[in-house]
């Protein structure tokens, strides 16, 4: 008689466990997760997103030609400054924001950095689009210089290697990178809904890789909406071989009538050597194994360049990737590195901390290259990628992803464009409509009593209905409909934005802060150069690459 209560209790416990597991299984779809997070705690967890922006911009003279002088000393050390640096070229500025939770503060800070910088360019302007123009001679494009420390010389040599490998023109294409992470509160909520087979930290890393896989499935959405390089100056093509059937307007503008982002086409950031790498995004360990193999993989083509010829370095090494940063991808898994630590070492040490979106053209209709409705759409889009089921990728899917991205980059606004799915093809427009419908409840949840996310979603939904309202559509309307050269139109914008930044109100306190960091960064560079003087560059490189073997 006493056995029955024990069995009954056990049965109740098993039923409770089964129901709990069933509840967790049910909360797997995007809509169900959004509903689950719809209380006050869930909304707060979702709104805890952190963002950072990196915006690249070429310095040009008053005639529109690429600047060839040194990085202005008033902006500090490009090696050590936290907000103002350079990318490939001495003329390619990169403005970096601190991490922000607030969209307005993020963009206001980026605007202040632009305004301070422009006032110290001796009358030079910033080129406000992704594709360069008015380059007299590719050989005159100055590679970025970072001083005499071994660290600085390695950064310069890496860029010199890029010149030998791909040419300098490709390296002065500008873009905007968007860094994104979600709150610990959201991770705690999602982890509680998981089966907890992974540790908390591993769960976060694997969830970010789920986001990355879904992003890669839908990355074509970003060039469709935000691609802003459907046209370019004919001087950019020069001796490059291309099968693209360009149309011409003005005196020297080439364009594709339905293109969205030539920056992301084979004319832009591509690396044929990397096509065979097959780096997997199915897990952090697989990704790290792929990256580590790539930086050790020899390249016959790059070996022909030579590494050190007649006592002078041409590149860091002859591998497919000189260093990890050479891996061109529209999204990256990231963690803030410690001093002397490589990106993959940081990921291996503590997992993924944030992701970096790299598929954004410079928005020519914003002085700072990006605006608030884009940021809020990216918030919604990336949360969707995170909260949606993300099966592992296979080779057959990779081919579809590549084909879809290429189709949208070259013909994204073409009426009736079809994209590939596992079950055949479907129209780009119907796919976008389905996505925007899915994002609407999330926008309502994030807004609460406000309307910012709903307004942003409605703004870009108009571009789904009318492709002329995409950024690329607006660019072509300004160029073709007005019968002007792309370069002339961009120069007009450059002048308008120059005046905008000159007139932008900067407080004396803000100016003093930028001046202090400029001075401090120069001192830090000098200290580093003094500290590394006793180690030869050869020994420094041997130690750096010896550590990864």
TrEMBL record:
EC numbers: 6.3.2.2
Domain Glutamate--cysteine ligase per the UniProt entry, residue ranges: 35-408
GO biological process assignments: glutathione biosynthetic process
Molecular function via GO: ATP binding; glutamate-cysteine ligase activity; metal ion binding
Pathway terms, separated by semicolons: Sulfur metabolism; glutathione biosynthesis; glutathione from L-cysteine and L-glutamate: step 1/2
GO (cellular component) term, any one: cytosol
UniProt KW keywords: ATP-binding, Glutathione biosynthesis, Ligase, Nucleotide-binding
Reactions catalysed, as given in the entry: L-cysteine + L-glutamate + ATP = gamma-L-glutamyl-L-cysteine + ADP + phosphate + H(+)
Enzyme kind, highest EC tier: ligase
InterPro entries in the record: Gln_synth/guanido_kin_cat_dom, Glu_cys_ligase, Glut_cys_ligase
Family in the record: Belongs to the glutamate--cysteine ligase type 1 family. Type 1 subfamily.
Xref: NCBIfam families: glu_cys_ligase (TIGR01434)
The protein's name in its UniProt record: Glutamate--cysteine ligase
Species annotation: Shewanella baltica (strain OS195)
Gene behind this protein: gshA
């Amino acid at each position: 008689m006493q056995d029955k209560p024990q069995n009954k209790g056990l049965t109740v416990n098993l039923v409770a466990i089964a129901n709990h597991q069933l509840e967790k299984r049910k909360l797997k779809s995007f809509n169900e997760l959004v509903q689950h997070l719809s209380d006050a705690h869930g909304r707060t967890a979702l709104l805890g997103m952190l963002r950072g922006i990196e915006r690249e911009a070429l310095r040009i003279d008053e005639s529109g030609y690429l600047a060839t002088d040194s990085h202005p000393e008033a902006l500090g050390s490009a090696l050590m400054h936290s907000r103002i640096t350079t990318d490939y070229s001495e003329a390619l500025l990169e403005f970096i924001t601190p991490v922000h939770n607030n969209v307005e503060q993020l963009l206001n800070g980026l605007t202040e950095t632009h305004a301070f910088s422009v006032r110290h360019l001796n009358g030079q302007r910033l080129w406000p689009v992704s594709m360069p123009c008015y380059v007299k001679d590719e050989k005159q494009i100055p590679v970025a210089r970072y001083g005499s420390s071994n660290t600085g010389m390695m950064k310069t040599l890496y860029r010199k290697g890029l010149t030998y490998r791909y040419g300098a023109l490709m390296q002065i294409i500008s873009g905007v990178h968007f860094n994104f992470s979600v709150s610990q509160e959201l991770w705690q909520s999602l982890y509680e809904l998981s089966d907890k087979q992974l540790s908390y930290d591993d769960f976060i890393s694997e969830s970010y890789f789920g986001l990355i896989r879904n992003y890669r499935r839908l990355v074509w959405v970003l060039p469709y909406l935000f691609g802003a390089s459907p046209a370019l100056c004919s001087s950019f093509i020069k001796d490059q071989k291309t099968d693209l059937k360009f149309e011409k307007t003005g005196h020297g503008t080439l364009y594709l009538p339905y293109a969205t982002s030539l920056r992301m086409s084979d004319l832009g950031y591509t690396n044929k050597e990397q096509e065979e790498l097959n780096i997997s995004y199915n897990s952090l360990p697989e990704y790290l194994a792929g990256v580590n193999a790539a930086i050790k993989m020899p390249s016959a083509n790059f070996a022909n360049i030579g590494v050190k010829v007649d006592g002078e370095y041409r590149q860091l090494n002859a591998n497919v990737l000189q260093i990890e940063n050479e891996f061109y991808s529209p999204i990256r898994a990231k963690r803030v590195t410690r001093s002397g630590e490589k990106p993959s070492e940081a990921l291996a040490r503590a997992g993924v901390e944030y992701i970096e979106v790299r598929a954004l053209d410079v928005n020519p209709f914003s002085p700072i290259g990006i605006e608030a409705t884009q940021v809020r759409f990216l918030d919604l889009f990336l949360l969707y990628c995170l909260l949606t089921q993300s099966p592992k990728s296979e080779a057959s899917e990779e081919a579809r992803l590549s084909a879809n991205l290429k189709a949208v980059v070259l013909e994204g606004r073409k009426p009736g464009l079809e994209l590939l799915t596992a079950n055949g093809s479907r129209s780009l427009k119907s796919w976008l409509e389905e996505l925007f419908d899915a994002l609407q409840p999330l926008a309502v949840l994030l807004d609460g009593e406000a309307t910012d996310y709903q307004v942003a979603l409605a703004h870009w939904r108009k571009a789904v209905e009318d492709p002329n309202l995409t950024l690329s559509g607006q660019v072509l309307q300004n160029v073709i409909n007005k019968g002007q050269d792309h370069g002339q139109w961009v120069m007009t914008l450059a002048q308008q934005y120059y005046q905008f930044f000159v007139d932008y109100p900067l407080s004396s306190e803000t100016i003093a802060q930028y001046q202090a960091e400029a001075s401090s960064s120069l001192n830090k560079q000098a200290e580093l150069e003094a500290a590394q003087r006793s180690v030869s560059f050869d020994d420094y490189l041997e130690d750096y690459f010896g550590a990864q073997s």
